[in-house]
Amino acid sequence: MNFGIAARIVVALALACTSVYAQDAAAPAEELPTPLFPLEVTDADYPIDSLLAAEEGRVVLNVEIGADGLVKNVFVEGSSGFPRLDAAAAYFAKARWRFKTSAAATIRVVVPWNVPSAGAERYLIYVPAPGQGTVAATRRPPLPNAPIVNEYPDPALRLAEQGIAGVTYRVLENGTVGEVRIVESSGSPRLDDAVYRMMIDRWRFEPAKFDGKSVATFRSSAIAFIIPGAPPTRVCHRRPVIAQEETRVFGRLDFAPDAPVQRLINKWVFVGADGMLADALLLTNKGWVHLGRRGAERVTGGAAFPRPTTPEGCWYFDPVPLAG
Questions:
Q1: Where residue 182 falls among pLDDT bands split at 50, 70, 90?
Q2: Structural domain of residue 75, as residue ranges?
Q3: 98 and 160, same structural domain?
Q4: Stretch 192-213: mean pLDDT
Q5: How many Å apart are CA 271 and CA 256, to the nearest integer?
Q6: CATH number of the domain enclosing 65
């Protein structure tokens, strides 16, 4: 016999105020199962691969509840369109939800998955906005977000130095780069110097246009130096380095030019003054998302981070490797 919950149950979740609710069905109120805890699937439960792909959707579950109040079976009645989201909703419903009930019952529950917004614009490196009507400059190869494998400074490579630098720069009317300014150091003078040389000597643009004429504009970039397979370099940053574009420069300790370039997703982890993980930011197809403490624990996989020596805590750059 099927029973539903008489009233719509709405649960405000920890990060993005997504809600889980049980749909109404005709049944005497005294016979309805009552949740012992909020029916919740939080943003920290979001499958990481689904976050990266910005998968969203609504899962409709049929939840079979035993007379003891435990969830016996969960069936997906309505798919979100993404198997990972369907499976996660069913898993957490069975693993967590508990009810007070006088008899076995079945309820229908709707689980909306919505990628949480990070509000990361507050971390964005400031550059003056171009004038209204200006057509933005476009970079010639190497393009933003494309891996670069021939710009790693040899001294830093031998020392296995890694890091990320936040940079503002000016694209001049002739498409060359001038006025490079490092606003957040990589932690290595050798890597910071390489940023200047690479950008000024080799980066070229189709300059911005205003009223058909070339004009100078300012831009920002987060330039990460990464050695695949090397132990991570943990540099304390006062804030995550987030810019208009992301650039990755890869170095190889084995100097194998034909080795495949590792695919990475940018991630920042915040460690409080007490040495505990407190938050994480992950770059997805929909932009940056906050993961919170539980999400940070999931994506770091038990990795160790230095305890901050400042009361403000530290942000650490910790990119996520992708298979394939």
A1: very high
A2: 21-113
A3: no
A4: 91
A5: 35
A6: 3.30.2420.10
- Find out whether 232 and 304 touch, Cβ atoms under 8 Å: no
Omega prior to 142 cis, within 30 of 0:
yes
Give the residue-averaged pLDDT of 241-247: 91
Residues 6+ away with beta carbon under 8 Å from 250 = 147, 148, 149, 152, 226, 227, 228, 261, 262
In a domain, 101, yes or no: yes
Give the tens place of pLDDT for each residue, 123-138: 999 998 888 878 888 8
Q: What share of the chain has pLDDT > 90, as a percent?
A: 50
Q: Burial of 122 by CB count in 10 Å (0-12 exposed, 13-18 middle, 19+ buried)? A: exposed
**DSSP strand pairing (138-139 vs 71-78):** unpaired
Q: Tell me how far CA of residue 324 lies from CA of 7, 84, 101, 264, 284, in angstroms.
A: 47, 18, 48, 11, 17
Residue from 229, 314, 308, 316 nearest 266 by CA = 316
**What is the CA angle 78-81-83, rounded to 5?**
95
DSSP 135: B
Residue 16, in any domain of the structure: no
Q: Do the strands 208-210 and 213-215 form a parallel or antiparallel pair, or are they unpaired?
A: antiparallel
Same-domain check for residues 221 and 130 = yes
User: Residue 313: is its pLDDT beyond 80?
Assistant: yes
Map tokens 């003054």 to a residue: 273
How many domains does the chain divide into?
Answer: 2
Looking at the structure, tell me whether residues 48 and 172 fall in a common domain.
no
Within 8 A by CB and 6+ apart from 247, the residues are 142, 144, 145, 148, 221, 222, 223, 224
User: Within this chain, do residues 205 and 266 fall inside the same structural domain, yes or no?
Assistant: yes
* pLDDT score of 2 more than 80: no
Same domain, 142 and 94: no
Span 51-66, pLDDT tens digits: 888 899 999 999 999 9
Distance from chain centroid for Cα 109 = 28
Q: Does any domain span residue 3? A: no
Other Cβ atoms less than 10 A from the Cβ of 197: the count is: 12
Percent of the chain whose pLDDT exceeds 70: 83
